[in-house]
Amino acid sequence: MKKDGVVLIAEHDEEHFDMMKNSLLRAGVSNQILRLADGRQTLDYLFEISSQPASEHTSQQYVLLMDVNLPDVGGVEVLEKIKADGQLSKIPVIVLTAVDDRHTIDRCYNLGCSTYIVKPAKNEDFAESIQNIGAFLSVVETTSIK
Amino acid sequence: MDNKMVILIAEDDAGHFQLIKKNLWLTCVNNDILQFKDGQQILDFLSRTGDGMHLDETKRYIVLLDVRMPKVDGLDVLRRIKDDEKLRQIPVIMLTTTSESSMIEQCYKLGCSYYMVKPVDYHHFMEAVQNLGKFLSLEGMRLPSISSNVD
Questions:
Q1: pTM for the complete prediction?
Q2: Using an 8 Å Cβ cutoff, are A54 and A74 in contact?
Q3: Which helix (H) or strand (E) holds B123?
Q4: Contact A129 B139 (CB under 8 A)
Q5: Helix axes A14-26 and A123-137, enclosed angle (nearest 10)
């Protein structure tokens, strides 16, 4: 990821978010990390950026880590809206959730998520997974949503 | 990780393929890795044409694609996968020396999951592939079924 790329985390649980942020930092992720607390906020944030003129955010690149269980608008619906948008669809979306059923997994891939990962139940395993995700994201190129 | 996962690698450079395979095996030893030497070979596999091995719908796949390949290039393979009703669920990761931003954008537009540029430095290349391998071998990693009738 480019240095000015932003890691967005759509996560209702603040403790989970803090843990994720710390693990990403530990993995050497130096990008800005932003929390979006629910599905509505996630959509508002992204569509707001997308509607701004290109000049202001030309180099803006994003990845989104998102839970399926989000208040207001669920993660699957958020994913559907992002992937239906010509510009926002270029954002890699990692679904990171406790939900582990075949139907949701297939549905998310069908909609265009990049990866579906089930959160490990134990905190230290969860933290380790996030570190691996962070290390991987640091070798991934993203593209501007403009 | 799904132990039925098969990693398909379309890579015409034999040296690069060995390097990728070796470093993936260092991190996710349990998975099958298949090599395709050009874009046509992997399309034949996926669309079950030609004489070689064919896709097995009970397994789960992930595709690593080089961009510059003989016969059919990686961009075309990506396009064909994402245009196909069944195959489009398969995650496709671009792994290539091409770093032009227009190519990166085009691949994300077509629906690649990630775009990775092969580092020129040997050690960085190994490290990047190992990061990918560790990511793919996460215990929580789930992949789509190809045929929804399977389950």
A1: 0.94
A2: no
A3: helix B122-136
A4: yes
A5: 50
